[in-house]
Automatic annotation (TrEMBL):
Gene3D superfamilies: 2,3-Dihydroxybiphenyl 1,2-Dioxygenase, domain 1. Pfam families: Glyoxalase (PF00903). It comes from the Bacteria. It comes from Litorilinea aerophila. Residues 12-126, 140-252 form the VOC domain. InterPro entries: Anthracycline_SecMetBiosynth, Glyas_Bleomycin-R_OHBP_Dase, Glyas_Fos-R_dOase_dom, VOC_core. This is VOC family protein. Coiled coil: none annotated.
Length: 255
């Protein structure tokens, strides 16, 4: 089991968090899909729920306000050692800060930002909460990428923001960003096949069987956005929950 016990280095995806218009229905959907259990943090934190896989924190779920005009979506948070300083650099590098840095009790500090190409992401400076404590296991987050019509601009933005190096994958417009020997996330160039889809971060959850997971997803009123296909890294699909929040699932190849 891949367990995380310490905060992650800056720029590392550390948490995924869902905003949904129907918290109870979303909990049921993801329970059926991933087998998640939940920990309700109570009224002081707006009944924010920690989704648990194998008794470890896998992701977060929160209910939207009735008048919230934003679509239901998963947000990916990148680790930060100093949210205030990183948020200032976001603006200096051509991005925007949607939600200014704020403390979340003793759990940590956060901000919500937009990169120069239009993809939304979060910053998380760990306090008591380090982010996901289980990764690369069924029901846990495992990979992340920015899908954008300007991959070079996104590559340069995140590289400069966090001091990362970028490598281009041979034969395709795809970059991987690295801190030393560790691969943190990818940047994918959107082409004409993505027409009508805005820039976004995509998070992947691991599953033990992609096709069986898709059957459970459809039984729980989820939808398949991109049918399953095989890659060198595993069999994957792009899906959405009943409220339109999009994510990917992948049955990881043993590598």
């Amino acid at each position: 089991m891949a367990i995380q016990t310490h905060k992650r280095a800056p720029g590392t995806p550390t948490w995924m968090h869902l905003m949904t218009p129907d918290l109870e229905a979303a909990k049921q959907f993801y329970r059926q899909l991933f087998g998640w259990t939940y920990l309700d943090t109570g009224p002081d934190f707006g009944h924010y729920h920690f989704a648990r896989a194998r008794d470890h924190d896998a992701a977060g779920l929160a209910g939207m306000q009735p008048d919230d005009q934003m679509p239901s979506a998963w947000t990916i948070y990148l680790a930060s050692d100093d949210v205030a300083a990183d948020a200032a650099r976001v603006a200096d590098l051509g991005g925007q800060v949607m939600v200014p840095p704020m403390e979340v009790g003793d759990t940590g500090s956060m901000a919500i930002c937009v990169d120069p190409t239009g993809a939304v992401f979060g910053l998380w400076q760990a306090g008591r909460h380090i982010g996901a404590s289980i990764v690369n296991e069924p029901g846990a987050m495992t990979w992340f990428e920015v899908n954008t019509p300007n991959a070079e601009a996104a590559r340069d933005f995140y590289s400069q923001l966090f001091g990362l190096t970028a490598h281009k994958m041979e034969g395709m417009d795809y970059y991987t960003l690295h801190r030393g020997d560790e691969t943190l996330f990818g940047v994918l160039q959107m082409d004409e096949n993505w027409q009508g889809i805005p820039p976004h971060w995509m998070g992947y959850f691991a599953v033990d069987d992609t096709d069986a997971s898709l059957k459970r997803l459809q039984e729980a009123d989820g939808s398949i956005r991109v049918p399953p296909f095989d890659t060198p890294y595993g069999r994957m699909a792009v899906v959405a929950d009943p409220f339109g929040a999009t994510f990917s699932i992948i049955q990881l190849t043993e590598m």
